Amino acid sequence: MQRRIGKSTVRLAGVLLLLAASTVITGCKLQIIVPPGGHVVSESGNISCGAGESCTIDITDVFFDETFQAIPDPGYTFVSWRQRLLGWCGGRNAPCRLTTTGLLDTPFMSMLEDDYLFYLQPIFAVPNTWTRRADLPHPGVGVACCVIDGRIYVVGAGADCRGNGKPEHIDEYDPVTNTWRGRAVMPVARNFVTASAVGGKCYVIGGEMYPGGEATNLVQAYDPLTNTWQEKAPLPESRAGAGSAEVNGKIYVIGGGDRAGAGGSSARAAVAIYEPAKNQWRSGANMQVPRAGVGVTALADAIVAVGGYSFDGWVDFASTLPY
User: What's the rounded Cα separation, in Å, for the pair 205 and 235?
Assistant: First the structure.
């Protein structure tokens, strides 16, 4: 015989489950940090945080459900929510909904089991303009950059093309506070490196040794969480002045030469592909023209290599490599 369960029984079970869950919920805090250029409001109108303010919200309600909107001031535009550790909606250019919705299994629901401080930060900007920001602490020729958790890491900063200055330094820039701070120096000083971020680490690849100026195949990864460096599998061949881009967790290192400023006689067409998860390298399809000092980025379904110098001098075209 089948037993029919009434609606009242289901409701009672739901209430008991809710009461049980509430005994383990510790609650968390959501901090909304708003830079100049706009403000943040919730669609319900219950929460509002103005430009230059930091608003903290205690969340202990298992039925929390708010959608936050970043409203730019006149002359500004909303770029996206900032990507950072323990941040939400990072990289999205849309309203940010944070909901526990009772006992449904939502990512935000898991926050209630912690006592962490989470963040929600908009990025506002004046479109089609340049703005002077805090200067790099060290002169930077042949630098490379990584972006991790909403901060910029600048590595390999030589004061001139020979690497004089502070090529072993790594400096961290916080665009919200417009401030720099020095971090643990590179174990091996070099400039004209290339760098890409994967999995919260900045992989600094190749470059010119200092002093000396010869190219290296050295690969080292910087971890901002521990402020430490770790040596990784070396490049298959030494190269300086290469470019790189990250796609789907892999790093594509393109071009380069024996010296970053050697005029192009040693420029390479080779493409090396690094898989951090395996700490292994493999070869990719060569470029049509060997070149060093090349700009590289990922776009749609291709990696774009722009400019640089080759055997025949400066290159003023772009080529694409499928990945």
Answer: 8
In angstroms, how far is CA 131 from the centroid of its own chain? 21
CA distance 34 to 17: 37
Q: Give the end-to-end CA distance of the chain in Å, rounded to a whole number.
A: 60
Strands ordered across the beta sheet of 179-182: 144-148, 151-158, 165-174, 179-182
Q: How far apart are CA 151 and CA 131, in angstroms?
A: 17
pLDDT per position as a tens digit, 278-310 = 999 999 999 988 888 899 999 877 899 998 887
Q: Could you give the 3-state DSSP secondary structure of residue 191?
A: strand
Distances in Å between the alpha carbon of 257 and those of 157, 193, 233, 320? 19, 11, 19, 19
Question: Six-digit token pair at 184?
Answer: 């643990």
Q: How large a percentage of the chain has pLDDT more than 90?
A: 48
**CA–CA dist 6, 50 (Å, integer):** 49
Instruction: Report H helices in the chain.
Output: 7-22
Q: What is the pTM of this model?
A: 0.75
DSSP state of 17: H
DSSP letters of 49-69? E-TT-EEEEEE--TT-EEEEE
Give 299 or 16, the one with higher predicted confidence. 299
